[in-house]
């Protein structure tokens, strides 16, 4: 299902290439789940550095509250964006090269003191968590989002209880 990027976006979901999109779509799915408007852009720190700078420098004025950044390889995009905005930047390392994302993880997480990037796990789990993390940032000042996050925690717990019951059935254990 295509994601619905909206013009009243409060979260930016950006990525170094459209090849990152299948993974970064997970961030969008979580934002949709929490009813958060977001925009999606391909912006590259290396191939379109001027556009990356413009995106970061206009983000506050355009109403964004957080920026999720996916990039792979020499993954400098999250750091560059973080250098040019006061918004929280959440980095998602992509497994885009033969190094399976270890290169992207280190490039994203090893920021110098003074310029933080909140770095998530490599790949889909990281993209999913980036969406949740952005919701948690917004949820500190939005009771509706905070309630949805709380419901989500309950869904997670119910899912584990279901798995536990299924496994016990398979093992033939009595209650
Ligand atoms: C990075 O290089 C992108 O974020 C992507 O993960 C990787 C490969 O990009 P393409 O060569 O597929 O455009 O900048």
Shape: globular
How would a textbook summarize the main sheet? 5 strands, parallel
Q: What is the mean pLDDT?
A: 95
In terms of structural class, how would the helical and strand content be classed?
alpha/beta
Helix content: 40-55%
Low-pLDDT ranges: none
Enumerate the distinct ligands: 5-O-phosphono-beta-D-ribofuranose
Order of helices and strands: EHEHEHEHEHH
What is the percentage of strand-forming residues?
Answer: 5-15%
Helical stretch tally? 6
With strands numbered from the N-terminus, the spatial order across the biggest sheet is 2-1-3-4-5
Topology, number of strands = 5
End-to-end Cα distance: 40 Å
Provide the gyration radius in Å.
18 Å
Q: What's the short version?
A:
The chain is α/β, with parallel strands linked by helices and 175 residues long. The chain has helices spanning 21-33, 49-58, 77-83, 102-109, 124-139, 143-170, and strands at residues 11-15, 38-42, 66-72, 89-94, 118-119.
